[in-house]
Amino acid sequence: MMALKGNAMEQSQGGKRHLEAFGVLVGTWEMESPQFPGFRGRTVFEWMEDGSFLVQRSTVPDPVPGSTQVIGCDETDGQVIALYHDTRNVSRIYHMSLEKGAWNIWRDAPGFFQRFEGRLGRDGNTMEGTWERSVDGKKWEHDFDLMYSRVDP
Fold this sequence. Notes:
Elements: H1 6-12, H2 14-19, E1 27-32, E2 41-48, E3 53-59, E4 67-73, E5 80-86, E6 91-99, E7 102-107, E8 113-120, E9 126-134, E10 141-152
Antiparallel strand pairs: 1-2, 1-10, 2-3, 3-4, 4-5, 5-6, 6-7, 7-8, 8-9, 9-10
């Protein structure tokens, strides 16, 4: 195997470097939503491939779908992408950013645009967020709120 040197070595670490901010999510979280009384789900974030990917697995009660996301990064532009799949056999691609305690997720797909903004609490163990949806990407409507509480780091 050929050893990487100089710029090639830096580029090979590019994806990991852009994902480092997402390390604050690693651990187990409980989820609640005021729109769904009694709803309690669990999300686990864990590193995969030595930090090259972050995996998010959500387990929730019916009728809400459980899901898995593999979050990674293109080393050339730093764009963070998530491949999403859920128990309904729905597969989607999302873009993500996590800066200054704001976790943003968005999907620009004709006919079904989505976006989420979650804010980490000061202690890093809580997060409150809102999902919105749009048919045209211009007129947005509230979908649902999610509250996260860290259970296990």
